[in-house]
Amino acid sequence: MIAHNISNIQSQLPSDVLLIAVSKTKPIPDIEEAYDEGVRDFGENKVQELTEKHEALPKDISWHFIGHLQRNKVKYIAPFVSLIHAVDSFKLLSTIEKEAAKHNRTIKCLLQFHIAKEDSKFGLAYEDAVELIEKYTDANMQHVAICGVMGMATYTDNTEQVRSEFATLRSYFDRLKKDYFETQNNFKHISMGMSQDFPIAIQEGSTMIRIGSTIFGERNYS
Ligand SMILES: *Cc1c(COP(=O)(O)O)cnc(C)c1O
After folding, report:
1. CATH number at residue 207
2. Among 4, 25, 62, 204, which residue has the fewest nearby CB atoms (within 10 Å)?
3. Which atom of ligand 1 is nearest to the CA of 198?
4. For residue 222, what pLDDT is reported?
5. Which atom in ligand 1 lies closest to the alpha carbon of residue 219?
6. 195 CB near ligand 1 (under 6 Å)
7. Are 3 and 36 in contact (CB under 8 A)?
8. In this predicted structure, what is the pLDDT of residue 27?
9. CA distance 208 to 37
């Protein structure tokens, strides 16, 4: 079933959109099934679960941290994490810089924006992001690289609302690219789109979709 779900999604993806399989709460054998189907990018949102899965699974997997990251836990994922999707403060970015330096790595990060009309979700407003980027530039950080933006649309059946939220994120990306990252080729990612809204996200310019339940089935939180 997992293999079938993956090939079904892959067949709808333009070649320049990366599929991240969101494996949170799912057991190792499920991840191995996706791996055998060719998936190498997996997303997790809990530090301990991520480190355990990293230990247990092949080392050519790129691990994406997609949840809210506490600063005191950065050290556990700094040795291996591939991309941190949800940076929403300069303090967190500074901690990532410090921990990445210990491992002689440069960790790629995305800035998470608040685009949904729901206040439960994390993320920056545009002006906050500008402030964060100016501090980042002044600090001349060598061990983090801001590589784009991430956001989650409102959970709603109103597709026009979802589309407009994704379009907003795309416009933020374009403005930041022009004003701050024009010469940085690695500022190129727009992480948007989940199981219920990824086709719209792709139409609005997503470069990475984060898909959980459509691949692995519904999650049971117990
Ligand atoms: C859980 C999660 C996903 C995947 O959600 P599905 O609806 O299961 O595809 C994507 N992004 C983030 C940030 C998540 O926490």
Report:
1. 3.20.20.10
2. 4
3. 9
4. 58
5. 8
6. yes
7. yes
8. 97
9. 18
